[in-house]
Write a structure and sequence with these properties.
Immunoglobulin-like, 5-stranded antiparallel beta sheet, 505 residues, globular, 10-stranded antiparallel beta sheet, 7% helix, 4 helices, mainly beta, single chain
C-alpha cells in the first residue's frame, strides 16, 4: 500500500547550532524577468556543483528573492527553472569558506513548445528520455514540476487535507464502503513512498508473511535518477479524457524483473504544465486481474508558483485465497493448490481541500464534484419531500426539499450507488435498485429517482353469509363483510367484524 503520512510536520527544516557557522558559505539574490526586470515568484533556483550535481534548491518568493547555503567551498552555478519556460544558468561562482555572494538571475522568457510534438514524429518504441528531442522536451518539463513540488515542502502555507479509505467492487469500481478523515497539514505533499533506493532494490510490491505492501511513486521518486535509469519512455497520443494534452508513457526496462510500475505523465500542450501521472503495476507476483490496480497523482501550480499534489489515489487488491480440492486441478495446478481470486479493490486517496496563508487567509477553493437530482412519486409524478438520499457505503447524504430536489456537494471522485430512504419502501416486496453514477472533480451529476407506487391490495369477495355461495377451496382468503353495514348505525368495519379476513370453507 502507499504509506499515508501520519505526521504532517515539516520535516525539511535543519536546526543549526547558533545563527550561522563562521565557515558557512551562502548564495542569495533575486530572479527577475530578462525583459523588464519584473520579479519572478515560484522559480526553482538550484545550486549545482562543478560536476553538475544538485547541492541545494529553493523556490523564489513573491519578490523573486532566494537564499541558500552551499555545503562546502568550491565552484558552483545557479539554475533558475520554470515550467513552460526556458531555464537560466548563471556564470560560475567560486565560493570560499565564509563567503556570502549575491546573484541576480535574469530568467529567460522563451516559451517551451509542446504543440509540435506528435506521436508520428516520435520514436514508437520505449527509449531513454534523451533518445529524441521530443521525449527529452517532455521529460524536462515534467522533471521541473516534480522537483518544484518536492522543494515546496518548505512553503509557509497550511493545507487542509481530506483522506479516505474505500472498498471498491471489482470491475465496476462502485464504492462499497468508505471511511473519511480530515487533517491539517504543513507539507503540501500529504503522502510518501519508499525512498528511490529502496524501490530500486525491493520493487513496488513487497511480500510480507501476512500479504503484500503496494507502493506508489511520490515526487521524490518521480524526479530521481533511479526512476529514469529503470524506465524507458515514449510519446503517446491523448484520448477523449485528455483534451489538449500530450503524454509521456513510461514502463520498466526490459531486464527489470522486480514488481514495478508503468503509466503516463500527462502535460498541457499549450502551457507545458504537468497535469497528472497515472500508473499501473507490472511484473506482479499474482494471477488475479490487475487492470484496475494502480494509482493517479494530480498536480497543480499555486499562485506563488509552487507546485503541489492536489489529489492522489492508489488501488490495491483484496485477494481471497481458497484451496482447490484434490482432483480438481486446472491450468496445470496440482490438486489441493491454493487459488487466488480478486474479492475487492482497496483504494486509499485524498485531496488538498483548502490552502491557507501564514496569517490564515484562504488561498483557493479546488473544484469539487456534486450529485443532484429529484425524487418523484412514480404513480402521480408528484415531488417527494423529506426522503433521505445517500451514496451507498459513505457518509454523503441529503434530504429532499418541498420540490423533491436534493444536492450532495463536495463529493470525492468515484463511482457511487445512489439510494434513498422513505417509509413507503417498507411495504414493498422488493427494494428499488440504486442508480450508479460516476463523478470527477468539477462535475455535477444529475439523477432522477422515482418512488415506486404502493402495493395494490388483492381483490376482495363477499364473505360467505346469509345464503351466499361458499368460496371454493384455494380461493383468495381476503373477503369483506356482507351485506355492507348501514351508515349511521355504529356497525363495525369489515376488518373488525367476526370472521373478517378469513376465507369460508
Amino acid at each position: 500500500m502507499l504509506r499515508i503520512r501520519t505526521d504532517f510536520a515539516a520535516c525539511a527544516a535543519l536546526l543549526l547550532s547558533g545563527a550561522a557557522r563562521l565557515d558557512a558559505q551562502s548564495v542569495h539574490g533575486q530572479v527577475v524577468e530578462a525583459q523588464g526586470g519584473r520579479p519572478v515568484a515560484g522559480a526553482l533556483v538550484v545550486l549545482l556543483d562543478d560536476g553538475g550535481h544538485q547541492r541545494g534548491g529553493v523556490l523564489s518568493d513573491a519578490a523573486g528573492r532566494f537564499a541558500m547555503d552551499a555545503p562546502a567551498a568550491g565552484r558552483y552555478r545557479l539554475r533558475a527553472e520554470r515550467v513552460g519556460r526556458a531555464s537560466t544558468v548563471s556564470e560560475p561562482l567560486d565560493l570560499r569558506a565564509g563567503d556570502a555572494r549575491e546573484v541576480r538571475l535574469a530568467a529567460g522568457g522563451a516559451l517551451v513548445e509542446l504543440q509540435g510534438i506528435t506521436v508520428e514524429g516520435a520514436v514508437k518504441k520505449c527509449a531513454r528520455p534523451g533518445a529524441t528531442v521530443q521525449t527529452a522536451t517532455l521529460w524536462e518539463e515534467a522533471r521541473k514540476a516534480f522537483a518544484a513540488a518536492d522543494w515546496a515542502e518548505n512553503t509557509a502555507f497550511r493545507f487542509q487535507v481530506a483522506q479516505y479509505a474505500r472498498s471498491l467492487e471489482p470491475g465496476s469500481l462502485r464504492v462499497r464502503s468508505e471511511e473519511r478523515k480530515a487533517r491539517s497539514a504543513t507539507a503540501p505533499s500529504p503522502f510518501a513512498s519508499l525512498s528511490p533506493d529502496s524501490l530500486s532494490r525491493l520493487g513496488y510490491v513487497v511480500r510480507q508473511p501476512d500479504g503484500a505492501l503496494y507502493y506508489g511513486p511520490d515526487v521524490r521518486v518521480l524526479a530521481s535518477p533511479q526512476f529514469v535509469e529503470e524506465h524507458c519512455f515514449r510519446v503517446t497520443a491523448a484520448g477523449p479524457e485528455q483534451p489538449g494534452m500530450v503524454g509521456l508513457a513510461f514502463e520498466p526496462v526490459r531486464d527489470r524483473r522486480l514488481p514495478d510500475i508503468r503509466g503516463t505523465i500527462w502535460m498541457d500542450r499549450a502551457s507545458a504544465e504537468l497535469r497528472y501521472v497515472e500508473y499501473g503495476y507490472a511484473n506482479l507476483p499474482t494471477r488475479v486481474p490487475v487492470g484496475d490496480l494502480g494509482g493517479r497523482v494530480e498536480f497543480e501550480r499555486l499562485p506563488d508558483g509552487a507546485w503541489i499534489v492536489r489529489r492522489w489515489r492508489i488501488r490495491t487488491p483484496e485477494i481471497a485465497v481458497a484451496r482447490r480440492a484434490a482432483g480438481m486441478s486446472t491450468g496445470g495446478a496440482s490438486g489441493g493448490a491454493q487459488v487466488e481470486s480478486l474479492a475487492g479493490i482497496h483504494e486509499n486517496g485524498g485531496e488538498v481541500t483548502g490552502i491557507l496563508t501564514g496569517d490564515g487567509r484562504p488561498l483557493d477553493a479546488p473544484a469539487r464534484a456534486a450529485i443532484a437530482g429529484t425524487l418523484t412519486d412514480a404513480a402521480t409524478g408528484a415531488p417527494v419531500a423529506g426522503a433521505r438520499v445517500y451514496l451507498s457505503g459513505t457518509q454523503y447524504a441529503a434530504v429532499t426539499d418541498g420540490a423533491g430536489g436534493f444536492r450532495i456537494d463536495a463529493v470525492a471522485e468515484g463511482s457511487y450507488a445512489v439510494g434513498y430512504v422513505h417509509p413507503r419502501l417498507d411495504s414493498l416486496p422488493a427494494q428499488p435498485r440504486p442508480q450508479v453514477v460516476a463523478v470527477k472533480p468539477g462535475d455535477e451529476a444529475r439523477v432522477a429517482l422515482e418512488l415506486p407506487p404502493p402495493p395494490r391490495a388483492p381483490p376482495t369477495r363477499p364473505c360467505a353469509s346469509r345464503g351466499t355461495p361458499r368460496a371454493r377451496p384455494g380461493a383468495p382468503s381476503r373477503c369483506s363483510a356482507w351485506p355492507p353495514p348501514r351508515r349511521g348505525r355504529g356497525a363495525a368495519s369489515s376488518t373488525s367484524a367476526p370472521g373478517a379476513g378469513r376465507a369460508s370453507t
